[in-house]
Structure formats: structure tokens, C-alpha cells
Amino acid sequence: MLKDIEHPLQKYIRPGTNYTTCPGCGNGILAQSTLRAIKNLELDFDNIVFVSGIGCAGWIPSPSFNTDVLHVTHGRAIAYATGVKLTNPKLKVVVFSGDGDLSAIGGNHFIHAARRNIDLTVICVNNRIYGMTSGQAAPTTPKNSKTTTTPYGNMENTFDLSDLAKSAGATFVARWTTYHARQLTKSIAKAIDKKGFSFIEAISQCPVHYGKVIGMRNDAPSMMKEFKSKSIHINKIDSLSNESSDDKIIVGELVNENEKAELTDLMQSLRTEVGTDG
Amino acid sequence: MIYIKKDMCKGCGLCIEFCPVNILKFSEDLNEKGVYPPEVTDINKCIECENCMIYCPDFAIFLEKGGVKNEK
User: Fold this and answer.
1) Sorting pLDDT into bands at 50, 70 and 90, what band is B65?
2) Is A251 a residue whose pLDDT tops 60?
3) Which of residues 3-32 of B touch A (CB under 8 A)?
4) Cβ neighbours, 10 Å, residue A3
5) Which fold has domain A21-235+246-274?
6) Contact residues on chain B for A224, CB-CB shorter than 8 A
7) Is residue A223 within 8 Å of A211, Cβ to Cβ?
8) Most distant pair of Cα atoms in chain A: their distance
9) For chain A, what are the domain ranges?
């Protein structure tokens, strides 16, 4: 009986591959949300190119998504994606990146892609540590949080990636957690549909390497319930005092601007103007 | 109708935790990964919310809408 019935998203999965993530990892939830968004948009999967960097999040599209996937050097996913988009503007380009890959190693590519407003969708899987190398403190680790390298608590300030994208000029910015998988699916669909630089920050759980230092070893359900209790929607933020909002995760669509001048369009009009088109 | 691909399950328990009508529990048979996959206790109580499918990180559980009548 089981052989006849397939998962509704099975047609997007490359035959013979499966997810090698740890039990309870948020990567699979993100993969499903993205594929479901693409299914809802009824896009041709062959016209989408996925680019991913190094880290656990790099393994979301590669090799499992059954389309063109570039798995590239550390932190440079957006640089490669920019090249793909400028070479063939008809393609939809989606970048998967972890928080370390995007904000630490590839921080400059991230802010400059947002500044240029190139039509990319960047999905950041923010698990708040370096998961693949066993849980060192990352720029996104919450202050005072314990990690493998900060056994007495992290003394550094935390990067707010969504605010960074917003101030660098992104057209669409949304932040959700893996608990908000349904809202995440809708936002990813909007981000892929929108022309311009779209950024999705998905707060994700790492039950193995982050869970072990915050008392939730291999306990993904508890980590996701914590996301639920800590998150507050952007529309309700006014009712919070500054002190109580410190450890809250502000979720929602933080930026949803009207479409503005986009790099591949500008490049195309320049080509037409100076007569090098075709 | 809920379908569970038992050998793809890694036993994280997210489907069991987020089922609003609590009809999933760990089964007593190990799968080939050496974990206990979920099993359905009472399919008639299923409200087809799709939570188990959406929250499964391993594409191991999914449902076909249309209730138990569609059972093949």
C-alpha cells in the first residue's frame, strides 16, 4: 500500500536522496515550507536555481532538490547567486544559507546584495550557533547564552539579521520560527514572487549541539515550544515595554515595500541603451 | 488517512507532540535506523490538520485528505 502513495512533495525530491540531518533538526521543516510554497505558486521547478553555502543549511537543497543546485564555497552563496541571476534573469534564484555562512563568513555579500536590490530570495536558517562544527558561538547567539565555546555565557552582542537586511535596503523581509511553518510557507511564496531582494530569517532549532548546552538535549519539541512562547508578532510589539522585549523573537513581515529599481532590470536597460544586447 | 514511512523516521517526536488530538504515539517496534517511529492510535479522531506532515523534518509522515473512507 505504501509504495503506491507518495508524499505530496515527493516530485521535488531527487530520487535516491534523503535527509541526513540530525533528529528533530529544523532544516527539514524549512525544506518542506519552501517546496510547499513553490507548489502553491505553481512554479516550474526547472526554472528555479538553488544556491547554498557551507554549513548544515547548505544541505537543504543539495542534493535533495530535483533541480539545478549550486553548493558553493563558504559564505559565497549570494555571490554565486548574483552571477546566476545576472547571466539569466529569467531564472528564479533562491539562496539557502545558515546564520554563520550568511552573517559571519559572507556578511559583506549579504549587505551588498540587499543594497543593490538584486532579485534574489535569501532564506537564512538561523539556528543561532555553528551547528555543523559542534556548537560554537556565532554572531547570532543570544547574549548570555551558553555554547560550547562560551561555557559561562556569551558576552558579545547579537546580530539582528532582519534589521540588517532592512537597513541595507531589502524589498521584503520576514522573520518566523520553525514553529510558524505555515506562516513561513506564505512568506516564502511572497518572497519568491516579489521582484527585488527578499530576505527570510527562519529561527530554527539545533537540538543536538545547542540543545545540549541549554538543557534541551535532543528535545526538538521543547525548543519549538520555546519559540512559540518567546515570539511576538510585529503588530503587537507596541504593547511591550523595552525590558520585556529583550528576549522576545519579533516575528512577522517586517518589510514589504513596493517594488523599486532592481539590478537585473537596470542592467538590461543599460544593455539596450548602449547597444550590446544580444 | 495517515501514512508513515517508518524507515525514514528519526524518532524526534515532533509529530506526536504537535498532534492536536493526540492520536500519535511511539510504536514498540524499532525501525532500520534503530528508533521508535510513531503509530496512529485512532484514525477516526484525525481532523486532517496536517500538523504531523508539516512539522516532520524527514518527509516520513503525510496524509491524504478525505478521511478514512479513502483507505485503500
Assistant:
1) confident
2) yes
3) 3, 5, 8, 10-14, 17-18
4) 5
5) Rossmann fold (3.40.50)
6) 14, 17-18, 55
7) yes
8) 63
9) 21-235+246-274
